[in-house]
Amino acid sequence: MAKTSTAWEDGLKAASTARGMRFVSGTPYLLDDVYLTTLTAWFLSATKDGLGHRVEWRVEIKPLRVDALLWEAFMPDTAMGPRMQLNRRINGAFRVQPLVIAEGVTSVEPAAEPYTTAALDAFEAARDDFIAAHPDEAGFARALEDRPEASQPRGLVLLITALLAADRPADAARVADEAIARGETGSMSSVVDVLKYLAAYARGPEVYAAFEASLVPTHTMQILRETSPSSAHELRREHYVGRFGHHLSSMDGSDPWAVILEEIAPEGADGSSGLRYLQAAGAAERMIVEFCRPDPEAPGSAVRSVVGRGGDDEGTVEFVLPRSTEVVGTHEVFDAEEAVAMFEAFYRAGDIGDGYTLRAVERFDPS
Predict the structure, then answer these.
(1) Counted domains in the chain
(2) What is the pLDDT of residue 2?
(3) Are residues 108 and 161 in the same domain?
(4) Which of 297, 234, 288, 285 minimizes the C-alpha distance to 262?
(5) Which run of H or E residues covers position 195?
(6) Torsion of CA 294, 300, 304, 307, to 10 degrees
(7) Rounded to a whole number, what is the distance in angstroms from the first to the last CA of the chain?
(8) Cα 188 from Cα 194, distance rounded (Å)
């Protein structure tokens, strides 16, 4: 009779601990000064189509330091005791996926107890052979560089952290940069993808400190909609590639009818002195753009202006918006493509570029 999951796990635990292994969360493992090696094994019952009882197993290994390096780069403010570190290394959400060094399927007979023997024998053989050939972090990194899985998302994180563990930070930074340039990602993300954290970390404390500073939000963007919920989110200038074209070309006068990009005021700025935003209202083919910025002639004040093109005004246009009706000059009407250029310039440099007129419509003075 096939064993239940609990019975299988109990048998695997007993058989592995009898060989000097440890066991956590259904996983037998061995720790030494350099490596963590784990065994994942499943018992599969006989099937009606003739497959007999069998055990599938996989042996995986990684240097202990790779997880510590990942945590230091990716989640430096998370405190973990020894037990939590061990659990995270084996089955945590934020861990470096190990290298598979052996896997297979073994047929077993119902009366052949224990079913675990073949899997545990394979674990010991694979581990011994790998460590004999690659006894330290440097050997592990060299072995991994030649394997195809090193170019996969889970393999990239393993390769970069392995290179760091092998004291090869320049190579780690190069691998991370090349993967980012190809548009690849790692196996996890926080504010940005993990590869960006590792690329900065590999370059040393000064570069990493600058990278951390770049994760502080620089702008907020609001998308206003009339019949469905509006949305707002923070942007980070160094990392947000920009989807202003998408948002502005999606405007239809209702859902959405406005896009507002506001620069987050520097810490310590008072009231209007830090007020700086760009907003567009209307539809993709016809919209009003307004620019609010501090008044250079009146410290502490800010002025909101309607943006226009240079040249003579050839009349007026009425905009019926969900919350107001606006009348502007024909030279103050833009389409989405023109507005995108202003949004990009404002986002990158804090201004909208040359060649525009500004017609003041509202003033914000210190309270």
Answers:
(1) 2
(2) 45
(3) yes
(4) 234
(5) helix 194-201
(6) -20
(7) 81
(8) 6
Q: Given phi > 0 = left and psi -120 to 50 = alpha, else beta, which region is 194?
A: alpha
DSSP state of 352: -
* Across 49-53, 241-245, 249-253, 354-358, least confident range: 49-53
Q: pTM, whole model, 2 decimals?
A: 0.80
One-letter identity of residue 352: I
Whose structure tokens read 């006989």?
Answer: 46
- Average pLDDT over every residue of 57-73: 97
Separation of alpha carbons 326 and 253, rounded Å: 13
Q: What is the DSSP letter of 291?
A: E
The secondary element (H helix, E strand) that includes residue 261 is: strand 258-263
Q: Are residues 134 and 247 in the same domain?
A: no
Identify the domain boundary among 157, 181, 211: 211
Mean pLDDT within 173-194: 92
- Tell me how crowded residue 308 is: count the other CB atoms within 10 A of its CB: 20
